[in-house]
Amino acid sequence: MVWKTTEYSGWGRVRTATAELARPERASTLKNTLADTICPAIGNCRSYGDAPLNDGGRAIDMTRMNRILDFDAGTGIVTVEAGVTITTLANIFAPQGWLPAVMPGTGFATVGGCIAQDVHGKNHHKEGSFGQHVLSVTLLNGEKRTVATPDRNAGLFRATMGGIGQTGVIAEAKLQLKPCPGDVMMVTEQRAENWDAHLALLDASQASYCVGWIDATATGASLGRGVVEEAELAAGLLPKAKPSKSVPMNAPNFALSGPIVRTFNNAYYRRVPTSGRSSVKRIDEFFFPLDKIHDWNRLYGKRGFYQFQNVVPLDQADALKAMLAEIAGAGLASPLAVLKRMGPGRAGPLSFPMEGYTLAVDFPARDAAPELIGMLEDMTVDAGGRLYLAKDALATGPAIKAMYPEHGDWVKAVNKADPDHAFETDMVRRLDLRTAGGAS
Amino acid sequence: MTQKCWIILGATSSMARAFANAVADQGANVILAGRDMEDLKRSATDLTVRGVEAVAMKFDARDSATFGPIIARAEQMEGVINAAVFVGSMPPQDAIDADPRLIDGVIKDSHTGPATFLTQLAPIIEVRGAGTVVGVGSVAGDRGRIGNYVYGSAKAGFATYLSGLRNRLTRSGGHVVTVKPGFVDTAMTWTVEGMFLVAAPEAVAKDILKAVEKQKNVIYTPFFWRYIMLIIRHIPEFIFKKMSI
């Protein structure tokens, strides 16, 4: 017996599932498990909504399949088992002069998860999405093992990038790493006093890594204020790592109530001097600031939280500003909100990125949150933007299909790779993603 | 600093892999020994990429012909030779009750196989005047319980062997650490019901490494298992025999 009945959830903890999980530790066990049952794979469950969930079914936990299978120090090409985390890759390779080309906001994400969501990082405007640096993937489907690359099985490869695991179990991947001069970051932080100033700083930035923290509780003349962080990889002395902490239990609901969040955000904004500042940070401290607080999702209490993330085209900045005004007015926002300018880079038909501005905001799962998020979803559709499946827990199928014009191509490729629909998950069923949309 | 080499027996287990990673992080070379060569080669490559020398070698506790080549390989390596034993097997007690011939295999895997290997290795440690043996037993060896007493008895025998080996090697500068893990989150325990206070393999590996550095004799990991087992060992037999814990 390799199956264990487990209740689990996405990172937002709003949606949960009870499924039978297997957790193979060897390639041979993974093979036998799939010979027994063809079912979706999961990683560290850092997607917020129901992307990793398969309620009443089975899933394969890939986190123990986490080894490096090959590395060429000359070219920076690495082959890994899909359960390896981004932090592990950064820790091993940064001292050797290489770094994952795209680093998402948490280092706990597995390579398999990064591919399945075609994640992006603070350098999206320069380097594009994670999938654009994948050279090949090895997919398992029962006894069948398929290697897909941008040239070989190209349709399958594209459907796998951002394909939320629907093309098969991602067992291995070959990645092109990016040269890095050392293992520190030179970081410059500047205040942006309102929306226009914030966008102006993001638009003008030439930095390799650039992201804005936004105070989603500020209203009126301060609407959109925040701190823009720009950074470059650098060589230098490594600042000492701060020990990690963990949130031992669910926080009470008032922990992230309006007054506390507003006070925190105000302090966070003012900690950067008006003239800005530069500092040297560790790579992990810059890329994964929240990873130092284990289980930080417990801060939202047992009800959990939603993260809303959308992107709108460059010329729809005003629409995004209107959405921010709705968010700030609703008084539901949390301290964790991000504004970023994205480039066009994306690797698959269901990849999230488009050239434009992306906004990500957390909302505690109070009664008013779904309604607000529903309104933001409508406004995003009207603006010609889209929602990010890695974050979504509430959207509707027709809206998602309208946001992803290549959805029909994806459905064809995926239904060919998995005609029995064995890899479907709660998210796929909720959004009816494996059926081509009637709207378009 | 003297070069160190660790021979890891049963290297495909997650606890062994975590320990191999921990010693590799400190710069030790590693011989990964076990039965699944394809898997061991993957782990060896992983460690090589991390910057140490790592090789995969065949070790089968039930086939003593596989022991010699590993000993020979270790003998060629310079510096201090250490060994960590993670082998063992735990078929369900009802499977054993249905086919008592399984007992032989359990005893070979968990006790006589590794004991035979370590007895062959001991002279190298004595000649070099240094080296640590880590023997992973189990809290199951502290007292025979209805649920897994064959496995428990094999681990108890192995623990007694380790105690004697410690007595022997300490005379020449060697050392033996007996490790008794409680519930660890491994493939072996994945579907076992009623587990509590389950430790991550990485946490156990860290505890073992600390015990090696401090030359501890017997450790429980996580530490509180010492007290749990203290209580369990002291339950009078006339009560214990009626319990099912």
Quick rundown:
The complex is a heterodimer of chains A (440) and B (245). Chain A has 440 residues and is of the alpha+beta class.
Q: Would you spell out the secondary-structure blueprint of this structure?
A:
The complex is a heterodimer of chains A (440) and B (245).
Chain A: E1 4-9, E2 16-22, H1 27-36, E3 41-42, E4 58-61, E5 68-72, E6 77-81, H2 86-93, E7 98-100, H3 111-116, H4 124-127, E8 134-141, E9 144-148, H5 154-160, E10 169-179, E11 184-192, H6 195-204, E12 209-214, E13 226-234, E14 245-246, H7 258-270, E15 277-282, H8 283-287, E16 293-294, E17 305-313, H9 317-330, E18 337-342, E19 356-364, H10 369-382, E20 386-387, H11 397-403, H12 407-417, H13 426-431
Parallel strand pairs in A: 2-4, 3-4, 14-16
Antiparallel strand pairs in A: 1-2, 5-6, 6-10, 7-10, 8-9, 8-10, 11-13, 11-15, 12-13, 12-18, 17-19, 17-20, 18-19
Chain B: E1 4-9, H1 14-25, E2 29-34, H2 37-49, E3 54-58, H3 67-76, E4 80-85, H4 93-98, H5 102-128, E5 132-136, H6 149-169, E6 175-181, H7 201-213, E7 218-221, H8 225-234, H9 237-240
Helix pairs in contact in B: 1-7, 3-5, 5-6
Description of the structure:
The complex is a heterodimer of chains A (440) and B (245). Chain A has helices at residues 27-36, 86-93, 111-116, 124-127, 154-160, 195-204, 258-270, 283-287, 317-330, 369-382, 397-403, 407-417, 426-431, and strands spanning 4-9, 16-22, 41-42, 58-61, 68-72, 77-81, 98-100, 134-141, 144-148, 169-179, 184-192, 209-214, 226-234, 245-246, 277-282, 293-294, 305-313, 337-342, 356-364, 386-387. Chain A is α+β, with helices and mostly antiparallel strands. In chain A, a hairpin with a 4-residue loop joins strand 5 and strand 6 (77-81). Chain A is globular, with a radius of gyration of 21 Å. The relative contact order of chain A is 0.15. The mean pLDDT of chain A is 94. The mean pLDDT of chain B is 94. Chain B contains nine helices and seven strands; from the N terminus they run βαβαβαβααβαβαβαα. Chain B has helices at residues 14-25, 37-49, 67-76, 93-98, 102-128, 149-169, 201-213, 225-234, 237-240, and strands spanning 4-9, 29-34, 54-58, 80-85, 132-136, 175-181, 218-221. The termini of chain B are far apart. With 245 residues, chain B is α/β, with parallel strands linked by helices. In chain B, 47% of the residues lie in helices and 16% in strands. Chain B is globular, with a radius of gyration of 18 Å. Chain B has a seven-stranded parallel sheet with strand order 3-2-1-4-5-6-7, sandwiched between helices. In chain B, helix 1 (14-25) crosses helix 7 (201-213), helix 3 (67-76) runs parallel beside helix 5 (102-128) and helix 5 (102-128) packs parallel to helix 6. Chains A and B meet through helix 1 and strand 5 of A and helix 2 of B.
